[in-house]
Design goal:
- The protein is an alpha/beta fold.
- It has one domain: 3-Layer(aba) Sandwich (Alkaline Phosphatase, subunit A), CATH 3.40.720.10.
- Helices cover 35% and strands 12% of the residues.
- It has 13 helices and eight strands.
- An eight-stranded mixed sheet has the order 4-3-5-1-6-7-2-8, sandwiched between helices.
- It starts with 7 loop residues before the first helix and ends in a 28-residue tail after the last helix.
Length: 338
């Protein structure tokens, strides 16, 4: 698994959009000095692994966690496209623009790792189409099943039918997704579903999939004008999800984890190149340490672990993912998740 990180001097520049652009330029120069350039297969220096954390149940930091996955979002597209919402979240929150996904860097295996806390060799989902008729649902616990088993309310809106593999019976109080692989939902479908649901419900854990960048990347190429327009559309979708969450939970009364399943290059993704495996990972909202670059290497499996940890639930000790506690203020905690 490639490891990605930033030297401390560069990491501090990422708080602003201009700083992020300057940091990327500095990183390019830094890597080039060592005989390596920021090419598709370059591997920037690694940050230290997260410190050992307590995986036991504890008093929750928040009652509500919202996870948004922007399918196919490359970190370098955030500043290249019109993304006022994403840029605000990065500036106000705690973020890494050099987090890493798994191999193969494809939608279903990556989301399986994101939502089970496990590498593909352990969760077993290595294909990228809806094969539930023959393969069934994932055979390991998901973040939804663990939260639901503890009495918490869980919900998910998926834009692709392949996510049926993660819709374990009895794990989700509310779930919506396309019926077959022949159909992919845009934000014109998914976001209204989220808004309508949050108008009446207050889930403890909500997952929202935004597919636009991936659709445009395959059709027109990653970093093409249509792709950047799709990233801008995804930014608007995130803004609407946050507005609905503010109305449902109250401003400042929930924590957001925003990430992606993979990046891409040309018209594809799935390999081990930097542009395929590097993803954004952003914390924002309640209890988040604001305006900071995460000081640890973040992997997509950490998403599930962090969501459970925020809700005060035990994180399985054998998970590959761990809570990214470095992104939070933890002096006080909520009295309980409800």
């Amino acid at each position: 698994m490639p490891k990605f990180g930033l030297p401390g001097r560069i990491a501090r520049l990422f708080v602003t959009a201009a700083g992020r652009r300057a940091a990327l330029g500095t990183l390019l120069a830094t890597l080039a000095v060592g005989g390596c350039s920021w090419s598709e297969h370059a591997q920037p220096p690694a940050l230290p692994a997260p410190a050992v954390v307590t995986h036991a149940a504890h008093t929750p930091l928040t009652r509500h966690v919202v996870v948004v996955s922007v399918d196919g979002l490359r970190p370098d597209a955030i500043d290249s496209a019109g993304t006022p919402t994403l840029q605000r979240l990065i500036a106000q929150g705690s973020a890494s623009l050099v987090a890493s996904t798994i191999l193969p860097s494809k939608t279903l295996p990556s989301h399986a790792s994101m939502l089970t806390g496990l590498l593909p060799a352990r969760h077993g989902v290595t294909w990228n189409t809806d094969e539930t008729a023959t393969e069934g649902v994932v055979q390991v616990p998901t973040v939804f099943s663990l939260a639901h088993a503890r009495g918490l309310q869980t919900a998910a809106v998926f834009g692709k039918a392949k996510f049926h593999h993660l819709e374990v019976p009895g794990s989700l109080d509310f779930v919506r997704s396309p019926a077959t692989d022949a159909e992919s939902w845009t934000v014109d479908v998914t976001v209204p579903l989220v808004e309508a649901y949050l108008a009446t419900e207050r889930p403890n854990l909500l997952f929202v999939h935004v597919g636009e960048p991936d659709y445009a990347g395959h059709n027109d190429g990653w970093m093409s004008a249509p792709y950047l327009a799709a990233v801008s559309a995804a930014d608007g979708a995130v803004a609407r999800v946050l507005a609905a969450a503010d109305r449902a939970f109250g401003t400042g009364e929930y924590t957001l984890i925003l990430t992606a399943d993979h990046g891409g290059h040309d018209h594809t993704h799935g390999g081990d190149g930097v542009n395929d495996v590097t993803i954004p990972w952003v914390l924002w909202g309640e209890r988040v340490r604001g305006g900071s670059q995460l000081p640890v290497r973040v992997r997509t499996m950490d998403t599930a672990a962090t969501a459970l940890w925020l809700l005060g639930l035990a994180v399985p000790a054998d998970w590959d993912g761990v809570p990214v506690s470095e992104g939070f203020e933890v002096r006080e905690a909520k009295s309980g998740a409800n």
